Amino acid sequence: MKIAIDARAASHPQPGGFKTYTENLLRHLPDVMSGGDEIIGYFDRPCDLDLRQSRVLPVYLPLLGVALREQWSVPTQAHRDKVDVLHFPCSTGACFGRMPVVVTIHDMIGLNGPPPRLRAFSPKEKARRLGMWLYNRWAVRWAASSAARIITVSQFSAREIIRVLGVSPEKVDVIYSGVTDRFHPLSTAEANETVQNCYGVDHPYILAIGSADPRKNIASLVQMYAGLPALLRRQFHLVVIWTHGALAPSIQQVLNSLDVKDFVHFIPRVPDDDLVRFYNAATLFVFPSLAEGFGLPVLEAMACGTPVVASSLTSIPEVAGNAAELADPNDKDAFIEALTRVLTNPERRAVLAEAGLKRTGEFRWQHTAKMTLKAYEKAIESRV
Question: Which pLDDT score is estimated for 120?
Answer without folding.
Answer: 61
